[in-house]
Amino acid sequence: MRLTDADYADFDVRLAAHDAFLRSRYPGERGGRQPIHTVYVAADRLDGFREWGALALKAMDEHEFPWDGADIRGKLQHEPIEDLRVDFEDGYGVRDDAQEDAAVRKAASTLAAGPRPPFVGVRIKSLEAATRRRALRTLDLFLSSYQDTFHITLPKVSGVDQVSAMVALLERLETAYGLAAGTLRFEIQVELPAAILAADGTATVARLIGAAGERCVGLHYGTYDYSAAAGVAAAYQAMDHPVADHAKAVMQVAAAQTGVRLSDGSTNVLPVGSRDEVRAAWELHHRLVRRSLERGFYQGWDLHPAQLPTRYAATYAFFSDGRDAAVTRLRRYLDRQESGIADEPATARALAGYLLRGLDCGALTDAGFPRSDLAAFI
Fold first, then answer.
1. What is the pLDDT of residues 16-50, one digit of tens each?
2. Burial of 353 (0-12, 13-18, 19+ CB in 10 A)
3. Residues 13, 14, 19, 20: is their CA dihedral positive or negative?
4. Got the DSSP string for 279-338?
5. Which fold has domain 28-320?
């Protein structure tokens, strides 16, 4: 051996800055539960969100739900919505200040009164010039009445400056309302091609994550705004269009190991109308939810109560179908048993994460290992 202690120390010094960068930028998966969906409800229709579970069950009964609904009926009765987003943007539209102010106060009061889903938040208008002042006013007014934990969705982000401005806004609001630094966090909606590829050819989305620091908790794909901006004809705009797959692949790589979570978008083909129309919409939604899960997008948007049954049916099947194989592979890895699959440590952590997600959403009641062991292994 020719290397000395001084040599070891020298390389520690050489790589110290990069070590610090890795710890800061790539801390690994964020701990805690991730909701499997976000339900967007326009602010002026918020009162109805507590009826979504009953409406979903009614749709299942009226249209003869084609998948096994035994496990999901309980979910629809006690926790039909995992993540609720009060929408002051596209779903709400443009109103005068007096109307939106009243809607903000009522939304804050409705959420504060409870009961409410385990995760809640608001989608403000964008920070583009035309809607900037209204976005700031809405968030300020909401905070004046509601200071429990919530997330903010920032739509139509097109560049780093908007994210930096959002960070400055949240810092200012925390100071104004006496909140601890870092309390307010937000999701970036990727609805414009400029959020994926900058004018200089760089991957904008990676820079957005860097500009947000620890305040960014998620990247949400906006199916229809993005597809339209990319020139896709309306009839072909969909979650599984190649334009969508490209954008989401870039998002996935940029967010990997940063702790920023991913959410797919929505389908606007709603399960309403005749029995055949509802069943066709259900088939589409079920397929798209399963497709997203298989590609590592564990969250998506739902826009209608009758989409909840297929959200849960597809999600529960995804985890229950793979439960036994995942348990066997993880157990063999931990026990160092030979098998037909040579799993790496990273894959073993993915197996544990898969089982933990199944427990979190209610798809699994027994994951083969204690929850605490799975969480610690990840």
1. 999 999 999 999 999 899 999 999 999 999 999 99
2. middle
3. positive
4. HHHHHHHHHHHHHHHHTT---EEE-SGGGHHHHHHHHHHHHHHHHHHHHHHHHHHHTT--
5. TIM Barrel (3.20.20)
